[in-house]
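Late entry, evening session. Most of the bench is empty. Finally got around to the prediction I had been postponing all week. Sequence below, unchanged from the version circulated by S.P.
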Amino acid sequence: MRIALLSDLHGNLPATEAVFADIRRRGADTIWCLGDLVGKGPSSAETFDLAWQNCDIILRGNWDEGVALRQFSPNDQFYYDQLGEDRMHRLDALPLEYHTWLSGRYVRLIHGRPTMPMLQPTYDEEEQLGWLFEPDFDTVIYGDIHHTALRPLHRNRILCSLGSVGNGLRVPMAQYAMLTCAPGREKAGFDIQFIYLHYDVERAVRDAENACGLPKREAYIQEIRTGVYGRSTQGG
């Protein structure tokens, strides 16, 4: 079984289109999205629709919740107008978590925040990460930190961060993962492959430049061009 795992599309249509095309080429059996479809980029409605059409599981991210509930900035009216009430209701109704058995591992999938009280990187001390595995998970997969990471922990635990489709940091490419495994509780191989995909970044820049009223436009352009975080507030 091949599961495409992606997160943090963030309204970047060229990156999202490139990732779904690559997933089709590789022949995934199912596509699971761990949230943050919207915000930051100029094409939240289009990326939402693509995810809704192509993903078998979609979780709610901090931006999905923040935009849906109008929790962030007064300047975010741009996103509300673009998405419309129906999409915003659907964002708010997305589940926060998905739990499943794969290759004999009990897997917890979350976005990060709002399940995490604060953004927690994979390199924190093990004692700080233990709560993610409670009560009895041995694998946790999440997004939110916008760069890929795979960390084995004591007691046969695995922590995996998927990176970001539309707002990849450190490596400014579209990032996602392919998990090859077997469904169920029987032990089998558990192979996680990180994929870094070139896409038309300058088209994404032009989309941002042409989007009247896009909040924090220059920070977003800096991030997708360089992979260097450009915002002083409201991370992820």
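Two things to note before I forget:
The chain has a mean pLDDT of 96.
The chain has seven helices and ten strands.
Will write this up properly tomorrow.
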